[in-house]
Amino acid sequence: MPESVRAGTVEQLRGGARALVTLNGREVVVFHHHGDFHAFSNVCLHQGGPVGEGMLIGKVESRIDSGGCWLGDRFSDDEIHIVCPWHGWEYDIRTGEMAGDRRLRLRRYDTRVEGEDVYVIG
Amino acid sequence: MTHSVEDSDLTNTGRRPGFDTRHHLAHAANQARERNYRDFLIVDADAHQNENESWSDIVPFIEDPVVRHFAEYSRHMSAMLFPSGGNAANQSGSGRLERYPGRSLEKVPSDIPRDVSLVRREMDSIGVDYQVVFPTSLLGLGMHPDTNMEVQLAWAYTRWMTEVVMPHEPRVKTMVYLPFNEPEACMRFIETFGDRPGVVGFMVAGARYRPIHHNVYAPIYRAIEERGKPLGFHANYYAKERVLEGMNRFLSVHALGFVLYNLVHLTNVIINGIPERFPKLRMIWIESGLAWVPFLMQRLDNEYMMRTAEAPLLKRPPSEYMRESCYYTTQPMESGDLQALETTFRMINADSQLLFASDYPHWDFNLPSTIYDLPFLGEAQKRRILGENARALFRLEAKTVKPEPAATNA
């Protein structure tokens, strides 16, 4: 039976809070985003920073026209990034993939909703 | 310890109220414990303070009354850089890096200088025994068109550091800023500050145009050589540099700008035979990372062999001087290709010439784990790069002096 730890209530996390819990001695951060709960290791793949404590911000994308001309940058409405507050490594909140190299990804943990509570499973 | 949202003070921006270096670097303290840095002498050869935050304490040390008057009406040192355009910067990654907007909010005890508390907290968290602390904005003075401004501000800063800050914390060291655009003034700096406690060398801010092999610098090199302390060239960029004018991103300007002037200066040093003329002068090339060094070694060696007449003082290929007379600091260490990095270590003779540097609190800082975790280094090599090379170069005590990192919560 895998260990699990309560991260908070559904309502709290849906309200925009994030939870930082310790599971099997490892820090795990839990988010709610677009109807789903996401739990990742709170240790950045770069130098070990507290990645889950950083800014949430839309992916910056460049707009390019059909002729290849740059029209400007904008924030994505669809892809939200977790930004490590130490050095700025950015990760997709849905997958934990590192934005600059999608082959790298944060360790992901499963979540489970029981009644009003959200649990992280180790 | 387990936190749930009921007792978490994280907001939906991920930020806690205020800022505390010890919390910000809690994971660094974890690394220090896991790797038992208490058993390692760790010397940080390049870290920084934000002297802008202490500007009002520095201003009274400015000697020139007119400059001091100007300074009294300038909110911070950066304002004094205006004729050179300063450095348009985005160090914080548009606010993504928490410590940039947060650090000025940090609460510290009022009975000691603010910088002492901040540096202690970061050293203790990272696991550093001794730290060489440099200024930040001041490093832009090499491009100031008023050469007296470089003299005046560097003088005031150095008096403040050595008379106000450093007496509180012997683990803090410094390399005296030399106003290289006024060579005669440099001699006064060397004579006045060179033997003060905690002064482990001298430093030239890299972004400047005057050729550093010019004869006017010979007395300076001789004086430093005789003192047996190293001379560092601390890299920085200059956003108005013509060759960088076309670069539209901070990333681009920083990536090239922090290497550019060290490339020029080191080339002039080697090709003009400074190591032959001042064989005991030890130079440190600071904060350019490492990848540029193998490039320059290969480039200069190739051209030198075809044009020895243009480098008549050299008796060997340039790369040999670069690995024997020069030291290099690690940060920001390019570690994406470990094979390339291992080759770089071999080419620069890292066992004796490489010095760990964090550059904390700047945006691209490195932790000791960037060296400790390298798979191609043995323990003896790690000890040399993390501390022993710097201990010998700076003549520091051999024992570790840092406390055990404080326990932190999740």
Chart the SSEs and their pairings.
The complex is a heterodimer of chains A (122) and B (410).
Chain A: E1 4-9, H1 10-14, E2 19-23, E3 26-33, E4 36-41, E5 56-64, E6 70-83, E7 90-92, E8 97-98, E9 101-105, E10 108-114, E11 117-121
Antiparallel strand pairs in A: 1-11, 2-3, 3-4, 4-10, 5-6, 6-7, 8-9, 10-11
Chain B: H1 21-24, H2 26-34, E1 43-48, H3 55-58, H4 65-72, H5 99-102, H6 114-126, E2 130-134, H7 147-165, E3 172-177, H8 183-193, E4 199-205, H9 218-227, E5 231-234, H10 250-271, H11 274-277, E6 283-286, H12 292-306, H13 318-324, E7 326-329, H14 338-348, H15 350-353, E8 354-355, H16 369-372, H17 379-394
Parallel strand pairs in B: 1-2, 2-3, 3-4, 4-5, 5-6, 6-7, 7-8
Task: Kindly describe this structure.
With 122 residues, chain A is mainly beta. Chain A has one domain: Rieske [2Fe-2S] iron-sulphur domain (Rieske Iron-sulfur Protein, 3-layer Sandwich). Helices cover 4% and strands 57% of the residues of chain A. Chain A contains one helix and eleven strands. Chain A has a six-stranded antiparallel sheet. A three-stranded antiparallel sheet of chain A has the order 5-6-7, with no helix packed on it. A two-stranded antiparallel ribbon of chain A has the order 8-9. With 410 residues, chain B is α/β, with parallel strands linked by helices. Chain B has a single domain, classed as TIM Barrel. In chain B, 40% of the residues lie in helices and 9% in strands. Chain B is built from 17 helices and eight strands. Chain B has helices spanning 21-24, 26-34, 55-58, 65-72, 99-102, 114-126, 147-165, 183-193, 218-227, 250-271, 274-277, 292-306, 318-324, 338-348, 350-353, 369-372, 379-394; strands at residues 43-48, 130-134, 172-177, 199-205, 231-234, 283-286, 326-329, 354-355. In chain B, strands 1-2-3-4-5-6-7-8 form an eight-stranded parallel sheet. In chain B, helix 7 runs parallel beside helix 8 (183-193) and helix 12 packs antiparallel against helix 13 (318-324). The longest helix of chain B is centred in the middle third of the chain and has 22 residues, at 250-271. Chains A and B meet through strand 1 and strand 2 of A and helix 2 of B.
